[in-house]
Amino acid sequence: MPVEGLIRLTTLPGFQDFHHIEDALPDPEGDIVRPFVPLRGQVIFPGIVSPIPLERPMAAAALSTAAQLRQTVIAATFRDPDFDADSFALEDLYNTGIEIAPGRILNMPDGTQTALGQGRRRVSIVALEQNGGFLMARARVVEDVVPRSRKLKATMQVVSGLFKRMADMNENISDEVLFYILNADTPAYLAELVASTLTLTLDERQ
């Protein structure tokens, strides 16, 4: 998501709600099954807190149900950012999605609803199944394997330094965002933070 979406999220109601929600446990087949929330024109990254517009009743129902049960949801993005149909298939979505810990649903001044969500783990979506007023997603967790080395640590320092220079020239990047990037302790988290602040296409964000 763009920089402006990350600024001062910690001041919004519901920011702390997801910290007590645990990741889903796999079933005997190795899959996790959770309520599904479709995203349009947005990609949520692991470890990043983002607002989630609830544009469809089924999305609001899925997220509300998961929040009440203190469970995560699974989300994936439409390949076409202008997709606006109520029914869809797996082929309409990017295969790689994200497990999200949901916060409370917020009523916005324009009458729409938004929720905060904390990205947890990337997943590969296997199937979507109808479950009353919303969909359930069956997915498999995508494990990130990143070897540690001195060269990789040096690369992280270079990336953090370049981002700080960019932040010094861009007043839209908050001190909060810069703080997290300068203190990122893994290559994966640093990459997610940087990518979440840049204006990229949906394909590039995937």
Labels describing this entry:
single chain; globular; 28% strand; disordered N terminus; alpha+beta; five-stranded mixed barrel; 206 residues
Shape call: globular
Number of helices: 6
Mean pLDDT: 85
Low-confidence stretches: 1-13
Q: Span from first to last CA?
A: 12 Å
Structural class: alpha+beta
Order of helices and strands: HEEHEEEEHHHH
**Backbone CA Rg:** 17 Å
Q: Give the total of beta strands.
A: 6
The proportion of strand residues reads 25-35%
Description of the structure:
Helix content is 29%, strand content 28%. The protein has helices at 3-6, 57-68, 150-169, 175-182, 187-197, 202-205; strands at 32-39, 49-53, 73-77, 96-107, 113-131, 134-141. Strand 4 and strand 5 form a beta hairpin.
Mind sketching the topology for me?
Blueprint: H1 3-6, E1 32-39, E2 49-53, H2 57-68, E3 73-77, E4 96-107, E5 113-131, E6 134-141, H3 150-169, H4 175-182, H5 187-197, H6 202-205
Quick overview of this protein structure:
The chain is of the alpha+beta class. It has 6 helices and 6 strands.
